[in-house]
């Protein structure tokens, strides 16, 4: 499964690169600009959830779910572009972070609580 995800992300990164090249947008896609755009899109991802209860946030209407899906796509696209601009393999980085988190949050100490690793 990991190879499929990696190949899919690689394909998506290539599609994004071609999309930007066709429009001559590479000059605008500095790491700083991409990180800024990513944060803006992450904020937009939060907007459909604003003022919802926990329960409501788990039971989105089809229209609201579609809006959230669109914002998730925007976040993912900018994250992949930022990864490409910096030469970072996002899957490898995520796997390394997951290994680190497994050390920081051992099951016997972290199960069932939301405390930060330095408070366990």
From TrEMBL:
Fetch the Pfam families from UniProt.
Answer: MazG-like
- Extract the InterPro entries matched here: dCTP_Pyrophosphatase (IPR052555), DCTPP (IPR025984)
What are the protein's GO molecular function terms? nucleoside triphosphate diphosphatase activity
Which GO BP annotation is one of this protein's? nucleoside triphosphate catabolic process
Record's Gene3D superfamilies? MazG-like (1.10.287.1080)
Asked if Transcription regulation is a keyword of the record, the answer is: no
Keywords, sorted A to Z: Hydrolase
**The name this protein goes by in its record:** MazG nucleotide pyrophosphohydrolase domain protein
| Source organism | Rubrivivax gelatinosus (strain NBRC 100245 / IL144)
Q: What is the lineage of its organism?
A: Bacteria, Pseudomonadati, Pseudomonadota, Betaproteobacteria, Burkholderiales
């Amino acid at each position: 499964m990991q190879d499929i995800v990696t190949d899919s992300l690689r394909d998506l990164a290539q599609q994004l690169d071609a999309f930007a090249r066709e429009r001559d947008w590479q000059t605008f896609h500095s790491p700083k600009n991409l990180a800024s755009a990513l944060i803006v899109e992450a904020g937009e991802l939060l907007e459909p959830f604003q003022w919802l209860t926990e329960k409501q946030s788990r039971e989105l209407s089809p229209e609201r779910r579609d809006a959230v899906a669109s914002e998730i796509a925007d976040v993912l696209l900018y994250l992949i572009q930022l990864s490409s601009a910096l030469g970072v393999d996002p899957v490898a980085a995520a796997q390394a972070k997951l290994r680190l988190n497994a050390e920081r949050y051992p099951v016997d100490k972290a199960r069932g609580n939301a405390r930060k690793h330095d408070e366990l």
